[in-house]
Amino acid sequence: MRWSGIVSACCAALTLTPPSFASAPSALPPYTPAYEPTTVDERGMWMEADERERLLRDSPLRIREGGLERYVREVLCREVGDDRCKGVRVYVMEIPAFNASMMANGCMEVWSGLLLRARSEAELAAVLGHEFGHFELRHTLMGFKAKRSATDVMAWVDVLGGITNRDMSSANVSLVGSLYRFNRAQETEADLLGFKYMAASGYPAKAASEVWQQRMAEDDATALGRGLKPRRNYTSGFFDTHPTDLKRAEYLAKAAAALPADGDARVEQYRAAIAPYLSRMLAAQIKMNDFGGTDFILNSLASSGGWSGELLFARAELYRTRGNPRDLQMASLWYRDAKAAGYVAPELDRNLGLALLRNGQTEDARKSLGAYLVARPEAPDAKMIQALLAK
Amino acid sequence: MKTKRVATLIAVSVAANAAIAAHANSLVAPGAHTGIANSKLSANSQGEWNRLSRVDGKNVEVWTLDGDALNKVSFYGGIANGMPLLREPDKKRHPLPKVSGTMLMTDIPALLETTYRSLGIVNQMEIGEQSPAILGGRKAIRFTYTLTRAADQVRRKGEGIGTLVDGKLYLVTYEAPALHFFDKDIERYRQLAASLAL
């Protein structure tokens, strides 16, 4: 009876109030150059981060050539200020998904899928600033502590439940919920800190909310492309670690509205910096079997810079990959448009020829495949193309 | 009461062992093998191989010498029009590319690449040489490729041979780390590939 009362009191306390780890710093932490981890937890976390960074540094996925990492770091420095970004290392990885992250030791990882989707330096800076916000608020450490506290308490609640023969599942469910709520609160905190950097950087503040609007629109396009209803969540679920894109877009747009609308998003500079890598990023995206999402990205890129030969070629590739007769027809048109727009790689003739051949337009296909073989007689697939022509 | 519990535990243990035995990896003895990957694909192996019990798809079978991370031969046996090469983890939300009856020979390596990329198994993959070949007496494509698996980031090389018969895809691939293993076992794979029949 006595134990039962204690357990009931514990449960009530745990259920009604989230654990105290959910408290957050109210002001920016002071900037400390060459910060060293201070506690056991923090030192352990840094050790793991250092190891992970060594793997990133030596990874074959890293895009080392052409100074792309240097450029991304410059954008971060413009966003958060030279002082704060001095110690940061940036690694750009060839992974075609929208993501960036920053570890406790100041190592930032940016995926190529984010660079493909951002339409300006300002949009890229908004995401980098958000990740930097996590770093500066030491969220990795706090998240680790929160998880440990919650799981410790859950283990003890189970022990107490066993001793007193009571069902403790509702208390544990409440603890799990508080942990996920804590993650969402951290994300919002990082968003708003990132927004403060944005406002001070000279980039237009509205870019932060536009990033999330674009994400929602792309998700909808992906769903529609797969014959599904758009899955737009308006409220965060129990297990969501992040606020919904809609909620983010809303509070960031609200914050941006309170500021002057000017600022330079540096669209042209961004486009020029990404141009050498664009073909590679588009080719990887096209092979993700996400017709709707990829078409959305292409349209989005074209809406700001027009349909270049490169984008038309990519669109033709997307349609040829799906391969319905109507797709092959459109692909053939766009290959020709791409050529007219100045896309001169011989692979265009090959792929146009393959689209025509698959669509039964044999004579036209022969001309295109023949042109490819003339231009690239030593191509690694030349023998196979010749065999297709010989049929 | 206690005796009953022990008896139950023993029964469960025996059943579990039987289940493990039924699904264990198995030795592939030298000689002729038919019905590979639940299809009319057959081969004549000179040395011993191991067949993994893991099922990557309805018509997929994996053979290896030292473990599939070190040398892996995948047989795709008659994947029908509209079916994916590998099992789809989420058919609705993350479907895989499908075999199409109108595919060209050059679309076979492309399908392998888009399947791997869609699954997130690789983020870097490049198709190399493509040349005409014969598989089971039919016109086929032989191709080489390189890839980096996302899980271990080890650079691998691959070689494959594939053909389409009545709209169904037959494909056999060999993958191994570029460092040491690919060259070590490539001849054993090529012997196996040369013995394939449909």
How many strands, which pairing sense, and closed or not: the largest β-sheet of chain A?
3 strands, mixed
| Helix-strand pattern of chain A | HHHHEEEHHHHHHHHHHHHH
Please give the domain count of chain B. 1
Radius of gyration of chain B: 19 Å
Properties at a glance:
heterodimer; A: 391 residues; mainly alpha; Serine Threonine Protein Phosphatase 5, Tetratricopeptide repeat; 2 domains; three-stranded mixed sheet; 17 helices; 3 strands; B: 198 residues; alpha+beta; Protein Transport Mog1p, Chain A; eight-stranded antiparallel sheet; two-stranded antiparallel ribbon; 3 helices; 10 strands; 39% strand
What does this structure look like?
The complex is a heterodimer of chains A (391) and B (198). In chain A, 68% of the residues lie in helices and 3% in strands. With 391 residues, chain A is mostly helical. Chain A folds into two domains: 3-257, no CATH class; 307-390, Serine Threonine Protein Phosphatase 5, Tetratricopeptide repeat. Chain A has a three-stranded mixed sheet, with helices on both faces. In chain A, strand 2 and strand 3 form a beta hairpin. Chain A is elongated and about 80 Å long. Chain B has a single domain, classed as Protein Transport Mog1p, Chain A (3-Layer(aba) Sandwich). Chain B is 24% helix and 39% strand. Chain A binds chain B through residues 55, 59-61, 93-96, 226, 228, 284, 287-290, 321, 323, 354, 357-358, 380-381, 383-385, 387-388, and chain B through 92-93, 95-97, 100, 102-107, 110, 113-114, 117-118, 123-124, 127-132, 139, 141, 143, 148, 150, 153, 155.
